[in-house]
Amino acid sequence: MQLFSILKKLRVALGIIFLLLTLALFIDIYEYFEESTFSKILYLQFVPSLLKFVQTLSLVTAGGFIIVLLLTLLMGRFYCSTICPLGILQDVINYLAKKVSKKKVFFKYKKGHPIWRYAFLGIML
């Protein structure tokens, strides 16, 4: 249990760092950051690295895209809960809502509907 606690604190710390770095890019109205800083901060973000990969078709320049895919295959939701700013923001809002709300149960278990999953997958393919 000790290892789980340490890993969770590490994940939260990394998530806050990625969120603050991405937020700094969005609120940089006085252009303190150079253009090269943008590419360094957004290197592990899925969409910017995917666009760079499609644009250059080079694995060297778009390594972030490959790293994100490998992390997702090996660790599952690691990208969404640690690197992606939207996933981190959702976790922060959920945490704050649990602290403020008087409701005890936020998410209830519901049985999955595989027919919807496979139908959606078929439509997307």
UniProtKB/TrEMBL annotation:
Positions of the 4Fe-4S ferredoxin-type domain: 62-102
GO function terms (MF aspect): 4 iron, 4 sulfur cluster binding; metal ion binding
One family name in Pfam for this protein: Fer4_5
Keyword field contains Kinase: no
GO cellular component term of the entry, any: plasma membrane
Transmembrane feature ranges: 12-33, 53-74
Cross-referenced InterPro entries: 4Fe4S_Fe-S-bd (IPR017896), Electron_Trans/Redox (IPR051684)
Keywords of the record: 4Fe-4S, Electron transport, Iron, Iron-sulfur, Membrane, Metal-binding, Transmembrane, Transmembrane helix, Transport
Name of the protein described by the UniProt record: Putative ferredoxin-type protein
Species of provenance: Geofilum rubicundum JCM 15548
